[in-house]
Fold this protein.
Amino acid sequence: MKIGVLGSGIIGLWTAYELSTKGHEVTVYSNAPATATTSASAVAVVTPLFPWSLEENPELFETSLGWFRKTLSKFHELNIGNDFMNVIPSFEFGYLDDSGVQILEKGFPASRLAQLNFSKTVILSMDQAVTVENELNEPQHVTFAVNFDAEMVDTQVFLPFFVELLKSRGVQFSFFDAVKVEDLDQLPESILFNCLGIFSQFLFPDVGTEMYPIRGQSHFIECTNEPPYYGIASGHHAVFKHKRGYYLGSYFLDKGNDTWADETQKNALSLVTLPTEDEMKLTIKFARETYVELAKQMGIDAEPLSIDSIWRVNTGVRPFRKQGPVMGSRKVSTKTIYDNFGHGAHGWTIGYGSTVDAVKIFQSEVCNG
């Protein structure tokens, strides 16, 4: 069948990959190349530190864990003969909550790591607490670190490779900027996959209503240093030193509450991707001081990062949804739409696995129906 995919982020690309695997003729429609999407802004650490809670939604957690395993396996398969993956020894720092429970980023209990399949997971105590400031005037005193091997996908290498792989399989790429649903009638395909992420709500305001935007910034700093390579992360901030340089990340910066505050926030032009002045101050402090202290606690002699040496800054807005990705079909105007969006900051981590399930819905309804 001839199928259109809306969006050229990682989910749109995985969707094109899976559909072409099934023998369909696929065209990816996007107003930006794959190397200029929100997905391209990420450094893509593929780790199953999901934001949704095992306690609140055990079914989604277990499903997501399965998606993660499929995705990581597919990355390993595609990496054979290529060089877009790195394994980085990493340290995620945490604190004790009021009940004495060890907590990592976004309330993730350290004990839950035992349920995940990292190749190595060790909880390390610290000689002394280090103060980390992720929000202005809201310091956290971290007292332990979880050491594990983080698998990283270099987006600047993978995305061009993946686009060329898709083209070699017959996938077409076409510029298209839909601002209203009626614009979709211009497309020749009767079946479209919606992989627009946060922009799904602008084109289809009746779907993904529980979704809200989360901003993220990635700063890249060149270095000529040799190993050791490592990752140091706590709360909103992370520093990864790898063979291409340093990555300084400021992530999970959300604007507003679980829902968008008013109608004006549903305008694509109102999405703020740049850090506020306060957020940038905290990021600089982490780069120059805090991460050096954290690394020292782990026996790593780290150097302060110079913000003046940043050679590339990527920003993006991710579609966070506590209920997990949106998948399913519906009729819109003259088209049948299959949704595959709402992965939040975890499109790189679970994207292939969830796309396999999204395409299965399509196959069962159309090809086997």
In short: Confidence is low (pLDDT under 50) at residues 256-265. The first helix runs from residue 10 to 21. The CA atoms of residues 282 and 293 lie 15 Å apart.
